C-alpha cells in the first residue's frame, strides 16, 4: 500500500469517505484514492495532505454522481437549503434556477409526406396504463399519425414476456427461428423488422431502465446473429 502522510483531519475525512461504501469495497477504493492523492502531492510538492486534498483526490476517482455527498461534507447547511428544503417548501422549489438547453432549429420546412406510409412501432414499458410514460408516448405517436404514418403501440405489461434463458441457441446459424422461448414476444420480432422506426417509453425508478424494459431488451439478443452489417443478406433470414 502506498505510504501517504495525512493530517489527523485528512485521515478522518478519508475514513468518512470510505464509509459510504460496503466494507468489501473499501480496500480497493482506499488504494485508488491514496494513489491519486500521491500523484497530487508529488505534482504540487506537498509532504502532508489535508482534508481538502483528500476530497479533491476522491472526486478524481469516483463518478460525478457522488457530488451531492461532497456537497454535504463541505457545507451541510447549504446542501440542505439548496437540495432538501425545496421539497418541503414549494416557493423555494419554484425559485430554483432551471437550466434549459436549446438546440438550433432548422428553418427548412419538412415535407409532411416524408412520414407517409411509414410504420412506427412503439413499446410502452411502464407498468402504469395512463401514466406519464404512456401519455407521452401517445403524444409522440399522435404527431407521427398526423404526418401520415401508421402506428402501433404495445404495452409490455399486458403481454406474456418471459426471460432470456441463456440457451444461446439463437447464436446457431443453423437454428431456424428467432428465440426458443415461445411467448408473446415471438410475433413481435417480425413487427420490429417490418417497422421503419421504433419508439420506446419507460420510467426511470432506480436510475436505469425499469424491469419490464430490461427483460424485453434481453430478448433482442437473438438479432445479433444476423449482424445487420456488411454480411447481412435478407435471403439468409429464416422468417
Brief overview, please?
This protein has 239 residues and is mainly α. It has helices spanning 8-18, 23-44, 51-61, 67-74, 76-84, 90-94, 132-146, 186-194, 211-218, and strands at residues 119-124, 150-155, 197-201.
Protein model, in words:
There is one protein chain. This protein is mainly alpha-helical and 239 residues long. 41% of the residues lie in helices and 7% in strands. It has nine helices and three strands; from the N terminus they run ααααααβαβαβα. It has helices at 8-18, 23-44, 51-61, 67-74, 76-84, 90-94, 132-146, 186-194, 211-218, and strands at residues 119-124, 150-155, 197-201. Strands 2-1-3 form a three-stranded parallel sheet, with helices on both faces. α1 (8-18) packs parallel to α3 (51-61) and α2 packs across α3. The protein starts with 7 loop residues before the first helix and ends in a 21-residue tail after the last helix. Mean pLDDT is 84; it is low at 228-234.
What key attributes describe this structure?
single chain; about 240 residues; mainly alpha; three-stranded parallel sheet; 9 helices; about 40% helix
User: What is the CA-CA span between the terminal residues?
Assistant: 59 Å
The Rg value, from CA coordinates, equals: 26 Å
The SSE order reads HHHHHHEHEHEH
The percent of residues in helical segments reads 40-55%
Strand order of the largest sheet: 2-1-3
Determine the structural class based on helices, strands and strand pairing: mainly alpha
SS element count, helices: 9
| Share of β-strand residues | 5-15%
The description of the largest β-sheet is: 3 strands, parallel
Mean of all residue-level pLDDT scores: 84
Uncertain stretches? 228-234
Tell me the number of strands: 3
Please state the overall shape, judged from the principal axes of the Cα atoms: extended
Amino acid at each position: 500500500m502506498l505510504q501517504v502522510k495525512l493530517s489527523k483531519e485528512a485521515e478522518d475525512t478519508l475514513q468518512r469517505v470510505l464509509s459510504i461504501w460496503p466494507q468489501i469495497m473499501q480496500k480497493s477504493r482506499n488504494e485508488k484514492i491514496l494513489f491519486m492523492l500521491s500523484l497530487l502531492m508529488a505534482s504540487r510538492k506537498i509532504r502532508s495532505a489535508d482534508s481538502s486534498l483528500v476530497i479533491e483526490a476522491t472526486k478524481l476517482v469516483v463518478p460525478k454522481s457522488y457530488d451531492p455527498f461532497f456537497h454535504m461534507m463541505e457545507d451541510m447547511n447549504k446542501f440542505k437549503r439548496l437540495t432538501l428544503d425545496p421539497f418541503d417548501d414549494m416557493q423555494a422549489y419554484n425559485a430554483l434556477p432551471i437550466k434549459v438547453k436549446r438546440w438550433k432549429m432548422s428553418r427548412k420546412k419538412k415535407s409532411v409526406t416524408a412520414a407517409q406510409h411509414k410504420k412506427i412501432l412503439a413499446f410502452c414499458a411502464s407498468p402504469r396504463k395512463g401514466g406519464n410514460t404512456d401519455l407521452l408516448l401517445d403524444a409522440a405517436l399522435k404527431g407521427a399519425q398526423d404526418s401520415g404514418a401508421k402506428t402501433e403501440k404495445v404495452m409490455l405489461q399486458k403481454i406474456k414476456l418471459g426471460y432470456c434463458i441463456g440457451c444461446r441457441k439463437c447464436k446457431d446459424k443453423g437454428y431456424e427461428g428467432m428465440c426458443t422461448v415461445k411467448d408473446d414476444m415471438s410475433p413481435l420480432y417480425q413487427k420490429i423488422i417490418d417497422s421503419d422506426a421504433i419508439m420506446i417509453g419507460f420510467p426511470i425508478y432506480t436510475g436505469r431502465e425499469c424491469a419490464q424494459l430490461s427483460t424485453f431488451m434481453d430478448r433482442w439478443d437473438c438479432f445479433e446473429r444476423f449482424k445487420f452489417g456488411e454480411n447481412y443478406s435478407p435471403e439468409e433470414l429464416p422468417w
